[in-house]
Amino acid sequence: MRSREHNPVRCVGAITHDERGRLLVIQRGHDPGRGLWSLPGGRVEPGETDTQAVIREMREETGLDVRPIRLAGMVVRGRYEIYDFVCEVAGGTLRAGDDAADARWVDAEAFDTLALTDGLAETLRDWNSLPRC
Question: One of this protein's Pfam families, by short name (predicted)?
Answer without folding.
Answer: NUDIX
